[in-house]
Specification:
The chain is of the alpha+beta class. It is built from two helices and five strands.
Length: about 100
């Protein structure tokens, strides 16, 4: 870890694209301004950790879902149909009937 000393208004540049500026100093805290390209995500540490944990949980849930293989080789996952109780009629109406209009 690189530790730097900076005064308010001074900057640190990372990789030529990211600029960190010390905005102000207060009792027990430092305000830092971050300038980065729009495509780059800038998060606080705790927010980043929460996003990573949510992504891991979502990946684990997707891995447990049943997969249906279509004729062209693509796969689909039907999360809603998996949660329905057995014995309900199909969500797809018969081909000879048009679907009802919403009210």
């Amino acid at each position: 870890m690189l530790v730097l000393t900076r005064k308010p208004g001074e900057t640190v540049i990372i990789g030529g694209d990211i600029r960190l500026t010390v905005v102000s100093l207060g009792p027990g805290r430092v305000k830092i301004g971050v300038e980065a390209p729009k495509w780059m995500t800038v998060d606080r540490g705790e927010v980043h950790e929460r996003k990573v944990a949510e992504d891991r949980a979502a990946t684990e849930v997707e891995a447990e879902l049943p997969v249906e293989l279509l004729a062209d080789g693509t796969t689909i996952r039907n999360r809603i149909a998996d949660k329905l109780p057995p014995g309900l009629p199909s969500a797809n109406p018969p081909a000879d009937r048009l679907p009802r209009k919403p009210r």
